[in-house]
Amino acid sequence: MARPKKEEADHGEGATEIVEIDVADIPTRELNDHLRDLMNAGTKKVILKNICGQRYIGTRLYSPERKIMEIEIFGTPGNDLGAFLYGHKIRVHGNAQDGVGNTMDAGEIVVEGRAGDVLGFSMRGGKIFVRDSVGYRTALHMKEYEDKQPVVVIGGTSQDFLGEYMAGGIVILLGLGDRKHKGNYLGTGMHGGVIYLRGTVDKTQVGSQVEISQLDDIDMKILETYVSEFIERFPDLGLKKEQILKDEFVRLTPQSKRPYSKLYAY
């Protein structure tokens, strides 16, 4: 199943074990069991070739010792990539399906294409970078937990219900390639966090609980940080931070931390 090989570590501290697996005929459960075994054995990096729809990759990789593993994927992973991800790094050379980063706790996911619906659902920590666009209900119920602040940076734009019931975290849509933000119901039920959009949106596109405002100096520092990280992860795009930040951005924030308080008896 696996072909281990040795490769010099980038940090010059000697050899790092890398395991390469052709997963064309390996079902989801068997693959994820094997990934867990490799992590427990101390493997630092796994390269998965010919991925086609296998789900939950990166899930069940928690360990009390907090072992960290890098997973590089060639192909199209199935739903719930990186669900409950705990500190690991995943890079996809291609597109990803629905549920990327579902309830993600820490770590990083990079998608070199587009991603499907409900990306970052209930995400409470870590970072997700998507080169192109995403589907419906991205950042649904994203939240902050203790000192964790989740971050999602999208190179393109999103479909409807971006940031629905969002309770914390940062979402950035860069609208690269002059993609206009056509999604509706942005921030419906939003009661925490912030969404930054490059370009503009009309009031009719956002939830009634959402305030559209201009950026201040703190916002610009946040954008500068995460736009720089986005560019670092996709050097093939040939982008420069200054090119992106010179354009207009708007900020979407909730008008209230309890938009539905009238529905409750307390």
Q: Characterize the overall form.
A: globular
Strand order of the largest sheet: 1-2-3-4-5-6-7-8-9-10-12-11
Please provide the count of β strands.
12
User: What is the domain total for the residues?
Assistant: 2
In DSSP terms, counting alpha (H) and pi (I) runs of 4 or more, how many helices? Answer: 3
Strand fraction equals: 25-35%
Query: What is the gyration radius calculated from CA atoms?
Result: 19 Å
Gap from first CA to last CA = 57 Å
* Main sheet record: 12 strands, mixed
Features:
266 residues, alpha/beta, Pectate Lyase C-like, 12-stranded mixed beta sheet, 3 helices, 12 strands, 29% strand, globular, disordered N terminus
Task: Please summarize what this structure is.
This protein has 266 residues and is of the alpha/beta class. The chain is built from 3 helices and 12 strands, in the order ββαβββββββββααβ. The protein folds into 2 domains: 1-75, no CATH class; 79-258, Pectate Lyase C-like (3 Solenoid).
